[in-house]
Amino acid sequence: MIGVAIKGLLGRKLRTVLTALAIILGVAMISGTYILTDTITGAFTSIVDKSYQNSDAVISGKVAFKNTNSNTQQTPAFPAAVLTKVRQLPQTGSAAGVVTDEAHLVGRDGKIIASGGSPPIAYSVDAAGDQRFNPLTLSTGKWPVGNGQIAIDENTATTKHFAVGESIGVSTVDGLRSFAITGVAKFASVSSIGGATIAIFDLPTAQQLFHKLGKLDEIQVAASKGVAPDRLASAIKPLLPPTAKVETSQAKTTSEINDINKSTGVVQKFLLGFGFIALFVGSFVIANTLSITIAQRVREFATLRTIGGSRRQVLRVVMLEAFVVGIIASILGLVLGLALAKGLNALFKALGVEFPAGGTVIATRTIVVSILAGVIVTLLASLRPAIKATRVPPIAAVREGATLPQSKHARFNAVASVLTLALGIVLLVYGVFGSGPTATRLVALGVGVLILFIGVALNAKRAVRPLALVLGWPGARIGGTAGRLARENALRNPSRTASTASALMIGLALITFVAILGSGLRSSFGDAVDKLFVADYALTASNGFDPFVKQADDAAALTPGVTAVSPIRGGDARVFDKNVQVTAVSPNLAKTVRIDWLQGGTDVPARLGKDGAFTDKDYAKKHHLTIGSPTGQTLHLRLKGIFDPPKGGSPFGPVTMSTATFDANYSKPQNFMTLINMKGGVSDANTSRLNISLNSFPDSKIQTAAQFKQTQEDDINKFLNVLYGLLGLSVIISLFGVVNTLVLSVFERTREIGMLRAVGMTRRQVRRMIRYESIVTALIGGALGIVVGVFLAVLTTQALSDQGIVLTIPWNTIGIFVIATILAGMLAAILPARRAARLNVLEALQYE
Predict the structure, then answer these.
(1) Who contacts 631 (Cβ-Cβ below 8 Å, separation ≥6)?
(2) pLDDT score for 13
(3) Pairing mode, if any, of strands 562-575 and 670-678?
(4) Phi-psi group of 191: left, alpha or beta (phi > 0 → left; psi -120 to 50 → alpha; rest → beta)
(5) What percent of the chain has pLDDT above 70?
């Protein structure tokens, strides 16, 4: 039976290759994801290991709570006197302290040098001190000594063409400053640290630049001979102030690597989801292809039964064929994953996110999971067709036109398909609107989507006839006889057409869902900006979303014609035992932001004072807050206002206080945005004046309301394009299913096509017939996909309506999807149409 299975595969090379491609692409997505994230994690781990390899204990700032999902997390500095005390301990062999912070390097064009989504690192070194704790190594030049000197990272020096002896700008807390480059450095163990830039100063300069005079951010300590790291840490602990903590270097390394794993884990799960979607679609392609080939091999299987083969042996033949295809396709997919990992990395880089580079990591887990996923999906998809093959009776070997007998349970198919669809909908509704645990609802949601797709696929054959008649009408009118025959061919076997279209349906359903949800996000956000934004200008970070230094407000306020400067600051806090980002506003907020107050009034921002706060109605309702309620624990605030945010959300956090209170309690206050009014409103002259005033703060930019809205929408569109690209993989796989079906259909209808040619149909008409049939099949999948996508979007937007997401159907985008579906159908028909047109008429008429 092994020989029979191998000969079966070799005898149908094209079908085998097309089937394998579906698995290859899905497995490549999975292996590529693992390779990419493991390589990123490996590079980060190498950086962390290098940073602490020569220390036994590390002293760092101590935060009140940890919030790794925040871009405003701040770790306090501690007194530099701690270093003197630590050096005096008998357990200490050597110790050195550093200041670390963030500082953008500025190019010759006056713009900040992008850090590829990584923090712009600032680091201090002691040129005359012990370099054992310094993770950086000099490539050229020397370490900076004294104010006015800097060393920069090798990547910046190479890509931006800076050399030792030249000057480079640095965007500091107090504005733009120029420094002389004395050296170029790099992390010795890593070929690249991604897009991150490094600005290196001597310790006194770093303390002065970052307002940390008499303070340090970190101390690395090496133990005396014979002293264990734990013992050293225990000796240091009593010397520390409340704002500092000590860990062994191993514990510090482990902690930072765990944080890295959490971050890359999010990316990994996100990308793996698309890999499994691709495999899910591939399973439809495999099942449909095998179902067709088994129907065409009835006499072959009957002959096997006639010469003594049992039903179990027939099952083994089909499953063995599937296993061979699965294992070969999985191995090829694993190899292709190497290239895909580079492609994904390039995709992130194009989006402005650049990761550190190191040696490519192919873990054992990657190999095992990739191969198992591919093989298991192939075998599961093949099981039903294989069972159908076992029902072929031996007598079929001598019957002309024998077909597969139906299962004894076939009469229950209609009921089972409807119940499957109903179960999927019920699980979806529970996952979206249910009140159970979040984890349970998420599982119900994921399973519900999968069952919904299966249910739609099972019921799709009932929709094929009406859809084919409607969608095939233009082809029948335009294409004449070829168009009419194409529509009839699509109607000939509704189950086959439905199964082929269902693979395409899944990808288009998800793409439609993303398009509608994205349109709702854009619409609700734009509506929120229109309702809230009454200022003339918004000052934001250069990338539009990072926080920036509050000192830029003072520069903007000095601009001639400015009538109001209203900052909105942000920072981390723990309120009601939850980590949140709180905000702070100035007393003149009413001049720049229109707020719909439910309690309080437009004078609330001016009345906040030292202990006032306001919140939105949902947060107030959730925590049973009324005017006068305390909203803080360590920082005691009184609620003075409750507002109703627009559907698209607001720039304010759950709790908003005054900027005076915020600045008094946060060591490094930063703005999310600053709203500005000017005499004469928005004009080229006013914009030019503001830009001139803010020249010394290159990490910020001025935008009008329209520009601000467009910037945010561009970010949404960029993310949606990534989703479209990743979901496009499943669409490509589904097209292989269409190609497979048409190729097999051409073989099945060889005599028929020969007769059509004999009675006068031209090669061109044959190609047109196959092409139109492919388009009709693709449009059926597109129609089903768009309907399912709209259904999913309606459920989701309804569930998120309290978050401001509204249902908005992007008809233009849907129209583009329809056109793309037609083009996809035409593309899928190229090979089958050419094969059909090239059939020899006489040989086709004799074909059995």
Answers:
(1) 575, 613, 615, 625, 637, 638, 639, 655
(2) 67
(3) antiparallel
(4) alpha
(5) 89
Annotate 264-278 with DSSP letters as a single string: HHHHHHHHHHHHHHH
pLDDT tens digits, 612-660: 999 998 888 888 888 866 655 567 888 889 988 887 778 898 899 999 9
Residues contacting residue 449 through CB under 8 Å, at least 6 positions apart:
424, 428, 792
Backbone torsions φ then ψ of 97, nearest 5 degrees? -115, 155
Q: Do residues 710 and 742 touch, judged by C-beta distance below 8 A? A: no
Pairing of strands 175-187, 121-125: unpaired
CA–CA distance from 323 to each of 364, 376, 377, 814 (Å)?
Answer: 21, 9, 10, 39
Taking the C-alpha atoms of residue 773 and residue 751, their distance in angstroms, rounded to an integer, is 18
Eight-state DSSP code of residue 847: -
The interaxial angle of helices 494-532 and 763-799, nearest 10 deg, is 50
Which tokens in the block code for residue 328?
């070969």
Q: What type of residue sits at position 527?
A: D
Which regions of the chain are under pLDDT 50? 396-402
pTM of the model: 0.78
Instruction: Please state the separation of Cα 669 from the chain's center in Å.
Output: 30
Q: What are the beta bridge partners of residue 357?
A: 192
**Chain-centroid distance, C-alpha 291:** 36
Phi, psi of 80 (to 5 degrees): -65, -15
Give the separation between CA 832 and CA 829, rounded to whole angstroms: 5
CB hemisphere CA count around 266 (13 angstroms): 7
Buried b (16+ CB within 10 A) or exposed e, 374-388: bbebbbebbbebbbb
The conformation of residue 533, written as its DSSP 8-state character, comes to: B
Q: Tokens for 388?
A: 């159908």
- Residues 671-706 pLDDT 10s: 989 999 999 999 999 999 999 999 888 888 899 888
DSSP letter for each residue of 675-696: EEEETT-S-HHHHHHHHHHTTT
